[in-house]
Predict the 3D structure of the following.
Amino acid sequence: MKNQDFVESLRASATEFTPPVRSLMDVDFYKFTMGQLILRHHGGMEVVFKLIVRDPTASVGHIVSQTELRKYLDYAMGLRFRKTDLYYLRGVDLYDKYMFKEEYLDFLRDFTLPPYQLRQVDGNIELTFRGPWERVSMWETIALAIISELYYRSVLAKIPKHELELVYVRAKDRIYTKLETLRRHPHIRFADFGQRRRHSFLWQEWVIGLCRDVMEEQFTGTSNAWMAFHHDLSPIGTNAHELPMVLAALANSDEEKVASQYTVLKEWEEMYGKALRIMLPDTFSSEQFFANAPEFVGEWRGMRQDSGDPFTRGHLYINWLRKHGIDPREKMLVFSDGLDVDQMVLLQEHFEGQIKTAFGWGTLLTNDFRNCHTGNQYLRPFSMVCKVVEANGVPCVKLSDNINKATGPVGEVERYKKIFGATERTSEVVLV
Amino acid sequence: MKNQDFVESLRASATEFTPPVRSLMDVDFYKFTMGQLILRHHGGMEVVFKLIVRDPTASVGHIVSQTELRKYLDYAMGLRFRKTDLYYLRGVDLYDKYMFKEEYLDFLRDFTLPPYQLRQVDGNIELTFRGPWERVSMWETIALAIISELYYRSVLAKIPKHELELVYVRAKDRIYTKLETLRRHPHIRFADFGQRRRHSFLWQEWVIGLCRDVMEEQFTGTSNAWMAFHHDLSPIGTNAHELPMVLAALANSDEEKVASQYTVLKEWEEMYGKALRIMLPDTFSSEQFFANAPEFVGEWRGMRQDSGDPFTRGHLYINWLRKHGIDPREKMLVFSDGLDVDQMVLLQEHFEGQIKTAFGWGTLLTNDFRNCHTGNQYLRPFSMVCKVVEANGVPCVKLSDNINKATGPVGEVERYKKIFGATERTSEVVLV
């Protein structure tokens, strides 16, 4: 990995113009795979995305300067894809040859991030993005990465230099130790999913370099297109909750709402073929998803587990597969819900021999600075997302397998619960 | 452009392992366009490429250490294309969508540079490459760039540090001044063609960055695939002498030899369509090329002028076009023969309004250190090429429009002159 002087970079960021996101490629790869589907099937639909800080004690509104935030969001709005970026996207054949069609590449050629609305409300940041879905959607991980980095810059700005050195020494020790643990479990395969809540761009880049050097085959890639491009890693990512959320919001009847979570899978496989078929069943709870799932779901390669208890969610899928006469050992569970090393070990050992596993390791890979500065409560990750909240004026809802990850107006959430059925949902603390 | 400490890098190269070529993408783009054609139509043909130092006073054999050269040629043999490189090549759509087919990308995926033979003969370096054409061909600009950089490292190693600073200050002043001149001639469009005889990788990269920043639209790209990739420039390049040379060598009769220079154009346009159709007529002299040229040559976009007097060569083409009822203003002359600023200005002004012009500016763009260190005769570019000399055991010949650029055994050159006709050829000093 690159040997960075993190302390020096941090100090420079206090006085120089140092955008946390400098390229439109510095975004999660799934924004492209979803973006192409959105453009093709739902282009022009008016949506609203909104920043949701799940953890009020993080005091984001007080810690992140609005002026700074505005400056770097504005900068991001001036970014354009380069020729080379589009050559790269056209040429990616990891999942299929020519997975991005000229229609979408033409769209990206002229793409800029649409305007944002930023307000301070009761000491909190209110950040919303409104516009055509295919454009607004791209803000998600970019906005989050900008806020996340500005947050930690601000937290660290108050710490004297020699203590900063220590902070980074401790964080490096921590990540090294984690990777050492994972090396003792060679069947664990993981990818970096950590852009959105990263400590900083440079830190993520350093961590990724470390993973590549230390973990070899166990490190399978990164969700960040820029990192994949520049460090010759596999770009990883498929689809996310925004697809079924918007489709359900716009469905004309309760039956259509339930059906829409499968419609999107049909659109997906029609566009991408086999390799990218990893489903995300928890948008309106995984129990009802599998209870109502049509046969073709059995052809998909696997599922991503992003909420609820990962063990029971895994077995829900395994049982569904067995019931449909499908050998789970040919399928894959991709875990991505607030992972850290111990849990990855437990999950891998538990599911070994039953089903293939893969891990999308996010925040606790690229931003574990907990207790790296004694007594500093802010040097920890906090839960923050940027979610679709409205489509064509209709509120969007996520139920999730974890009550604390649900989004949408209370009344709508209740209505969705009735429509989709009050299935098992747990209440776990959302750490990241 | 990147602000490099050239002196420091130079000093580091004396003690550290610092390969002049670190990526298989650090090669001229035409090696790919030609390589694909070679693989498809002439794959597996046994060829010999050979280093030819046209200027014996450069003392390459004394200045370049054989041990160093061997070390860095060996290093180059260990290089592989990265996933990202192949994504990029698959996605380049500058000339046509999907110009590189899977057959060729598969070949590149497993590609390594084939072995070389290096000997010291009478104080000179004898460097040859023998093997299948599609593999050997790739050595050309890589081997040249390695030798070139090692040569100047060695020359500069004898100069004290404060004088080295001055060398670079002068070279920077020189290139700045050249670009200032070109800015006063906004109709001049040029690309960097300077990898093969560059001062160093870092210097080429710096010069390219400078061109981009200073010249804007006048700077149209670079022949170097790595530079294009990493600096978001258009990769420039089409075909070179090796194609007609090998085809002529293997032709079964004199008539076939003459015909082969057009056969290759047919193979080319069949593979690449319209945009890449820039011909190189001087292999066996441009006069006979146009005298015998079939009608379809009139459909090509233009020609590259690489030897002989550029003014008369240009008019040869213009006259041929007019005779065939084609408006030369729709065609292009690409000049690439040892260009420097003054000549570019003269050529552009001369041909303005008659035919489009473009300039492939090589050695005097990326390696003009003449007189940058008082009295040092070696700090100048020298003429060196890496040419095909044999195909399936048959010697290869180039006649060229400049007698001093001819290659091949004397007897064969005479035979070719009879076959192709003793047309006008001039004798110009080959500076680079």
Notes: Residues 265 and 279 of chain A are 8 Å apart (CA to CA).
